[in-house]
């Protein structure tokens, strides 16, 4: 993996992370999930969605446009 991946979204919910990742991919933004949850308990840690550094602004704009809060 190249070193130019940056975190664009963090959640504790794996389904939310997957939805965000798929939305980014559908908008031509390469994205991957980094699961940092403890494998023994699955209650500690977070899941991060990473994008290429050059796509950060577009990804951030997309994520903000989908938030319902």
Automatic annotation (TrEMBL):
InterPro entries for this protein: DUF2007
Stretches assigned to the DUF2007 domain: 5-64
Pfam family, one: DUF2007
The organism's place on the tree of life at top rank: Bacteria
Official protein name in the record: Putative signal transducing protein
The species this protein was found in: Pedobacter cryoconitis
């Amino acid at each position: 993996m190249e070193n130019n991946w940056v975190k664009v979204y963090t959640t504790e919910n794996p389904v939310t992370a997957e939805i965000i990742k798929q939305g980014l991919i559908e908008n031509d933004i390469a994205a991957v999930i980094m699961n940092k949850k403890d494998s023994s308990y699955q209650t500690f840690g977070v899941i991060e969605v990473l994008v290429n550094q050059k796509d950060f602004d577009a990804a951030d704009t997309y994520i903000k446009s989908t938030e319902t809060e």
